[in-house]
Amino acid sequence: MKLIRTENYAEMSLEAGKIIVDKVRSNPILTLGLATGSTPKGVYDYLIQDHEANRTTYTKVKSVNLDEYIGLPAKDPNSYHYFMNQTLFKHLDISENDTHIPNGTASDLEQECLRYEQLIKELGGVDLQLLGIGQNGHIGFNEPGTAFSSRTHIVTLAQNTREANSRFFNSLEEVPTHAITMGIASILDSKEILLLVSGERKAEALNRFVNGEISEDFPASALKYHENVTVIADRDALKYI
Ligand code: GLP
Hints:
Elements: E1 2-6, H1 9-26, E2 31-34, H2 41-54, E3 62-65, E4 67-69, H3 80-87, E5 99-100, H4 109-122, E6 128-131, E7 153-156, H5 159-165, E8 178-181, H6 184-188, E9 192-197, H7 203-211, E10 229-234
Parallel strand pairs: 1-10, 2-3, 2-6, 3-5, 6-9, 9-10
Antiparallel strand pairs: 4-8, 7-8
Bound molecules: 2-amino-2-deoxy-6-O-phosphono-alpha-D-glucopyranose.
């Protein structure tokens, strides 16, 4: 595991952005694994600015997102479909058909999980997976206790995850109780992983990730089994390290 220490959120975003742009330029047909949440927003801004300034093109790039809330249609401002379209996709030249996010309103959700897993396989797997981390160590929406062997599946969101994410909703009650997420094994299949960690809010989780044991009680610890993980963290997140 490689750890890149940065001063602040802006520098973390810049470092990650540069890595992604380099990958896209050297392999214009790659499959990017993308994440939502506050953490990757700065990276997405960097990709957009670079696309405008340097014409990095995404016409042959494919993307797969980690997760989606169950019950929120793509047009719902709190869905991850909406987030990705507004925050990134509509600003790039990536084709809508090449962007993939689990469908949280599928009539058969179990079937949707299988379809999504198959789709990733058909795309040849994820070349570079961007990840954030939850305060409880979740990656994607894989909450503590998730089997490391898990594939794309339906999850019941932990109460503290719903509380953490309620800042985007009008109230806690509006936060969905379930989600579809790529599993831990699906994530570990990625050829390369970039884990971004920013802010004091994440300092304990980062400390546990770096110094703690590998355990299903702390989903991010599975990343230690992966041979190509780069953690980019800012000074506040590195408080205990
Ligand atoms: C969310 C997402 C994760 C994300 C994490 C951290 O619930 N499902 O993919 O990495 O929580 O979010 P944030 O970056 O907003 O702190």
